[in-house]
Amino acid sequence: MRIEVAAAIIHNKEGQVLIARRKPGKAQAGLWEFPGGKLEAGEDAVQCLRRELMEEMRIAIRPYEALGSHEHDYGSVQITLVAWKAEYLGGEIALSDHDACRWVERGELAEYDFAPADIPFVERLRKELC
Ligand SMILES: Nc1nc2c([nH]c(=O)n2[C@H]2C[C@H](O)[C@@H](COP(=O)(O)OP(=O)(O)OP(=O)(O)O)O2)c(=O)[nH]1
Fold it and tell me: How far is the CA of 108 from the centre of ligand 1 (A)?
């Protein structure tokens, strides 16, 4: 099975990036990710991310720049992960699909265990290439 997933690399005014840990019971539980989710039929990545962030975290974002996509084979599922840079607009974070979230500096990203599909984006962020 192949699924298309969008992830938002959300920054705040201080330049920190929002990361979240997948909660127990979900695929990749315990690993950190950039929040987002599966594209629904007829939806583009920007619409998907606006919807997912409101559903999963109750926050409003503005995705504004596509950072490309990476394929990852999880065995039972192959995912195409599309990442977008996004601006945090507002709303107080209320978690439903995650059991933790943090605003982190790029230099702190190495301290977290990310879902394998996210690693190429994490590396680019760490090197400040995006
Ligand atoms: N959202 C998100 N999912 C990721 C990332 N990296 C990564 O490997 N995944 C995987 C985990 C899941 O297998 C899949 C996304 O599923 P999901 O559970 O977040 O999506 P969803 O909210 O639409 O799904 P559902 O729980 O409603 O079924 O992609 C990432 O950075 N963000």
Answer: 23
